[in-house]
Amino acid sequence: MMEKKDYVLNVSERRPEKGKYLLPLFKGLGYTLKNFFSKPITIQYPTERREVRPRWRGLHRLKVDEQGKLKCVACGLCAKICPPQAITIVPYEEEGGTRYPKEFIIDEIRCIFCGFCQEACPKDAIELTKVYDYVDYHREDFQFDIEKLKTPERFIFTGK
Question: How far apart are CA 127 and CA 151, in angstroms?
């Protein structure tokens, strides 16, 4: 028969060196204090707005001349070059031979904001603004007609 032996396992307590965790603790505390007293990176949107880059492409605008008439001559180049077919133009020709758009509609939901319409326009009549936060409840309200396209800034939320 085998004898029963007592086994003793010797385990030494492993303690860290004194002060080993103090340096990381003070580094973390220093980082926290530095950021606690710095300027916050958050903004109070929508009352405060971020500045967008110079080449930002937002909502469309139709430009008017000094007399208040549209610069657009309803040539239709912007509608032809638009990849998602978001622009609809119905031309109108006066007796003097000058052309104006009778109806000019941009579907801002379909638009991909590529800027091709702005580049194709020979009269520089259409531009993309810096307005980036147009919201509404109905899809029909994203169909911008001539009146909306003249002043798209008045349709954004001002935060008041």
Answer: 12
**What is the extent of the structural domain holding 138?**
60-155
Q: How many domains, the chain?
A: 1
Residues 108-151 have pLDDT tens digits of: 999 999 999 999 999 999 999 988 888 888 999 999 999 999 98
DSSP notation for 99-145:
EEEEEEEEETTT-----HHHHH-TT--EEE-S------SSGGGGEE-
The answer as to whether 145 is a domain residue is yes
What is the model's pTM? 0.70
Whether the Cβ atoms of residue 130 and residue 55 lie closer than 8 Å to each other: no
- Confirm whether 78 is domain-assigned: yes
Contact between 119 and 127 under an 8 Å Cβ cutoff? The reply is: no
Residue 11 confidence (pLDDT): 66
Q: How many CA atoms lie within 13 A of 132 on its CB side?
A: 11
Angle made by CA atoms 140, 141, 147, in degrees to the nearest 5: 120
Residue 50 lies in a domain: no
28-51 pLDDT, tens digit each: 999 999 999 888 888 888 788 888
